[in-house]
Automatic annotation (TrEMBL), chains A, B:
GO cellular component assignments: cytosol
Residue ranges of domain Carbohydrate kinase PfkB in the record: 2-281
Pfam family, one: PfkB
Molecular function GO labels: kinase activity
Protein name as catalogued: Sugar kinase
Keywords (A to Z) from UniProt: Kinase, Transferase
Top-level taxonomy: Bacteria, Pseudomonadati, Bacteroidota, Flavobacteriia, Flavobacteriales
Amino acid sequence: MSKLVIVGSCAFDAIETPFGKTDKIIGGASPYIGLAAAQFDNVDPAIVAVVGDDFPQEYLDFLAERGINTDGIEVVKGGKTFFWSGKYHNDMNSRDTLATELNVLADFSPKVPASHKEAPIVMLGNLQPQVQLSVIEQMDVKPKLVILDTMNFWMDIALDELKTTLKKVDVITINDEEARQLSGEYSLVTAAKKIHEMGPKYVVIKKGEHGALIFEGDKMFFAPALPLSDVFDPTGAGDTFAGGFAGYIAQAGDTSFETMKTALIYGSCLASFTVEKFGTERLQSVTPEEIKERLHQFKQLVQFDININD
Amino acid sequence: MSKLVIVGSCAFDAIETPFGKTDKIIGGASPYIGLAAAQFDNVDPAIVAVVGDDFPQEYLDFLAERGINTDGIEVVKGGKTFFWSGKYHNDMNSRDTLATELNVLADFSPKVPASHKEAPIVMLGNLQPQVQLSVIEQMDVKPKLVILDTMNFWMDIALDELKTTLKKVDVITINDEEARQLSGEYSLVTAAKKIHEMGPKYVVIKKGEHGALIFEGDKMFFAPALPLSDVFDPTGAGDTFAGGFAGYIAQAGDTSFETMKTALIYGSCLASFTVEKFGTERLQSVTPEEIKERLHQFKQLVQFDININD
C-alpha cells in the first residue's frame, strides 16, 4: 500500500443550486480528495484535518468505511467545524458565498501522525501557505512528491509565505487566472515557466469546464473536461480532480511525465462524476466499471488519427 | 480538384496590439478562409466577395498567386472596401473596435459565378443570414456540405432569417456563448442537440483559446487550441480555423465523423499560426513541414495511453 497524506479542510457545506438545496453535508477539500484517491488500488489515503466535536462520528465512520485513514483528523472539544454555504447561479459557473464560518479551521495546526511521516506522496489542499509548509517540515522522510493546491486569496495576502512554501513543492495546482496572477504573465506557457522557476517541477493549470494543462519544462499535456448534459453541483470538482490526480500517482508509484498525463486524465474523469450530484454523493457511488466507461469517453473525445508522415 | 466556394467579407483591416500596429492590410473573413484552405492539395478555394475599386489589384493578385480563385470577387466601381479597425487589450482576449465602415459590404449581394455553381463544398462566412441563403439558392447542384459561420449579432437582429437559413445548412460554426444564446441551453451538449434540431447535422462550437468541439448526434470530439508562448494578433484566427476545417473536408472528399475530427484539428492547427503575426502574414509563409510539425505537437498535447481493459 502506498500512503497518500492529504491535508485540507473538512467541513459542513450547505449548497443551493438551481436544482435544489442541501442541509449541512460533509464538505471541504480533504473528503473530496480522499474519496477520489480511495478509488485506486493499493493506495492508502490518510486525511490530516481538524473538525469540531459537532462533526458526527458517522461522518468519520463513513470516510473510514471507504478506506480513508482518519487517524490524522483532530477533533477539537467544544469546537465547531468549518461551515461553508453557497448558492450557484443558473449558469452553474458562478456562485455567491452565503456563509464562511472558519471556526476550528482558523487555528488549524496540522499534526501529522507518526505513522504518516514516511508517506511517499503528500497532497496539500488549499490552506494558508505556512500551514502547508508545516506539514512538509513534519515529514521524517522527504516525500517523493509534494503536491500543493492554492488560490488567489493567498497570493493577495501571503505571497511571500506562498513563495517560501513553493520552494519545497514538486507540483502546484492552480487555475488559469491564478497562474497569471502568480507569474505576471498572460500566456499560460510563459506563466508555467515562471512558476517552475519558483520551485515546482510540474505546473498544473486547472481551467474548470475547459480542462486542465500540465507543464514540465518544455513538455505539456492537456486533459479535457468531459462536456456534460447536466451539471448538478460543481462543489468539490477541483478537489476531486486533485484527489484523482494524486491517487493515480500514488498507485503508479513513479513520477514520470507519462504518469502525470494519466493522472491528469483520471483527475478530470473523477471530477466529471462529482458534479452529477450534490456534494460527495456521486463520488460515493461510482463504480470501477463506470470509471472505465468514462475513461473510454475521454479517449473518444480527443483521440485522433492523422498520418503526419505522409 | 475539389472546389470550395467561400463567401465572406473582404476588407481592409487596421490592427493595433500591445506589440505594434498596422496600416491598412488585407482582412475580412474570406482571405483568411481562402489562405487556410489553399494549404490543402487538390482543393480549389474560390472566394465570392465584394470590394471597392480602392482595393489594390496587387491584393487580388496576391490571393490568385496563392491558388485562390478570385473570379467571384466583385469590384464595385467608385465603391469603397469594407474597413475595420480594432485595438487589442493587453490580455489579447478582448478588443475595442475603433472603426467599422461597411461601405460596399452594406449592399453585398453575392453573385456566384457559373463555374462555381456545382461546387461540392460551400463555406459561408459570417454575413447576414439572408445573404448566406441567397448563395445556397444560387447553386445548381445541392452541395455535399454547406458550412455556415454566424454570430450573436444576427441572433439579436435576424433570428428568424437565421433559422430559415439554418434549415439548409449541414455544419454550423459558432462560439460557446452564441451556442447558448441560439439554443437557450447552458450545457453545450444540450445546446448542440437543440441546434441540431434546427437543421445542421454537425455543430461546431469554437471556444477560442479553449479549443473547439464538434457534435454529431451523440458523438462528440474536442480539438484543443495549442497553448502558445506568444499571441501576437488574434485577428482572423476564427476564420482561419473555418478555412482549415473546410479545406481539409474538401481534400478528404467525404463527410464522415472521422473526417470532421481531423478537419477540426487542422482548423485549430492553422489558426495557431495565424495568431503569431499580424493579419494574414504568418498564414502566407507557413510551410507544409511546419504544419506537420505542429500537428505532431497537437498529438503530443492530448494523446494518452490508458489501458482501460485491465
